[in-house]
Amino acid sequence: MHNLSPQDFLAQMLATQTSSIAKYQFEQQTVWIKKAGKRHSIWLYRFFGIAAKLLKLQALTPVPNLGGYQSILTETHRLQELQQRGINVPELLAYNEEGLMIADVGDAEVPSEQLESALKHSASAEDCLRLYKQVVDEVHRIHQKEVWLSEAFLRNMVFDKNQRIAFLDFESDPGQYMNQQLCFARDWLCLIFSASIYLKSHDVLEQGSSYLYATIQQESKQTQNAVLSATKLFNWLNKLPLNKFGKDGYRLTAVLTVLAYLKALM
């Protein structure tokens, strides 16, 4: 495997790789190879699409990840586009019809760290709030560049070797299904759904919501209204005994509280 080009290395590894994503060493750096998977069923997407339409929740319209070569093309295009706009995403090293290869954003001395883990295990309430504000600022900075993420959940964010936030997973593109302002709102909703539980566990829900509100206020009215419209989807949850649903109930309670704060402030 010596002196292989990135393209040849990708082709050789894909020939035997069985998992959807795997880590390798290539020319003294860590790389990740994503293999095209089976096409995903579109029936579930259609079901939630109808629900979003009936409830007039355009920002929550499901964005299909069809898998296969199409997902590879989408991620390739999105990585190239975001990198050109100055967004911190993994470097695309090679791709073909079967998969793609990206560089790890960490290194041997400073490995990448999952942002969700960092927020969850914050040493203090102050640290949790600081990290959350950092994420909010970074998402807003991306929007100022007139681009959006694909799935802005904490699980798709990591700290790189320079302790900057890097963004992962671009197999789908919301911009193919909704306008720019709704894509922005979708980013905020993904963040709310994934981060609220950690704000609640560190008792900084109100402070975090206030900071999020002040940031969203800097975006368009359509984006603000689309974020607030999500309360329609969760209104009926207030009638349920969420405390009996374990961790999921705890998470939903946190999300509802953040949305309630935003609604009151707006």
Structural description of this entry:
- The chain has 266 residues and is α+β, with helices and mostly antiparallel strands.
- It has 2 domains: 6-103, Phosphorylase Kinase, domain 1 (2-Layer Sandwich); 113-265.
- It is built from 10 helices and 7 strands.
- The strands form 2 sheets. Strands 1-2-4-3 form a 4-stranded antiparallel β-sheet, sandwiched between helices. Strands 5-6-7 form a 3-stranded antiparallel β-sheet.
- A hairpin with a 5-residue loop joins β6 (157-159) and β7.
- The protein is globular and about 60 Å long.
- The termini are far apart.
- The mean pLDDT is 87.
- It comes from Acinetobacter populi.
- This is Serine/threonine protein kinase.
**How much beta, percentage-wise?**
5-15%
> Helicity range of the residues?
40-55%
**Alpha-carbon Rg, integer:** 19 Å
Uncertain segments are none
Count of discrete alpha- or pi-helical segments spanning 4 or more residues = 10
Number of structural units classed as domains: 2
The termini sit apart by 58 Å
What profile does the largest beta sheet have?
Answer: 4 strands, antiparallel
Order of helices and strands: HEEHHEEEHHEEHHHHH
pLDDT averaged over residues? 87
Principal-axes geometry comes out as globular
Number of extended strands: 7
Order of the strands making up the biggest sheet: 1-2-4-3
Structural class: alpha+beta
